[in-house]
């Protein structure tokens, strides 16, 4: 067993022990921050697409096969990265003797929004047209608009704008977008012409300009502790290995190269905003580098398969999602990918724990989420 896996087992045992104690006495652990607001795509969507007319939905088995309560709309067998960050106790606390997960915007209401809301939507992009071939989705701009509506409710619940602003300034804001702008836009010439309009450098510039516009709105509406997740190694996903890799194992460099350009620009946004907004703190999570470590040394993290999807897709046919009621692999913790694009809970856990407590200096810049929560 690798050192990384042993450490993870220790962490899980400790967390489960604490949770068991809390359940025994019916107590509620104090969160590190009062609320958690999540923006993103299918990597962190937890049900906002369930009622949309969209092909990008995951509210059926085998999705959620290992999640409490079954399928919820999460594109994984279990928890997503943001769920696991909470599981490592940034703020998900005991509530009514159950683990509390941040609710999706589609169903969040009343007092529960004070604990945070998940606005993420599968197929969503930074650009408005991204993902349109998949049907309904809530773009980054739409998610930010939904957040503005939520802030109005927070003001009503807390009584006035100053109290709400002070409350929101203590919350964590998690943002992870951009993957679809490449897979469901730039590198999909049958539906989009952006690949002909822009060089990879120009496209990254366009995306970052649009991204920062929404970040400024979030800042204007109270966001002060902001986590920006870089794009992972999309060129190493089972879908791309099936379609564009000769041996089914070598990552597609054309896509990964474009992703690295975007990530470098996004990391630059952290410095730009931290210099401009001295009352806020923005950080960057190097998802790309974390995935690179996993793929380079899978056994260190307990994985034996990093090329195929656990629910029978990926290299077999390049399919995007699991088929309804499809029988998944039995050893899900040994697979990095659940379907052709999305990690298993085990894969999400690696990214989450390194985002929360950086294993390498490059994992988080300038600080990790744990430190951000303490600021």
Automatic annotation (TrEMBL):
Pfam families: Lipase_GDSL. One of its GO terms (cellular component) is extracellular region. It is found in: Secreted. InterPro entries: GDSL, GDSL_esterase/lipase, SGNH_hydro_sf, SGNH_plant_lipase-like. Keywords: Hydrolase, Lipid degradation, Lipid metabolism, Secreted, Signal. CDD domains: SGNH_plant_lipase_like. One of its GO terms (molecular function) is hydrolase activity, acting on ester bonds. The keyword Protein biosynthesis does not apply. This is GDSL esterase/lipase. The lineage of its organism: Eukaryota, Viridiplantae, Streptophyta, Embryophyta, Tracheophyta.
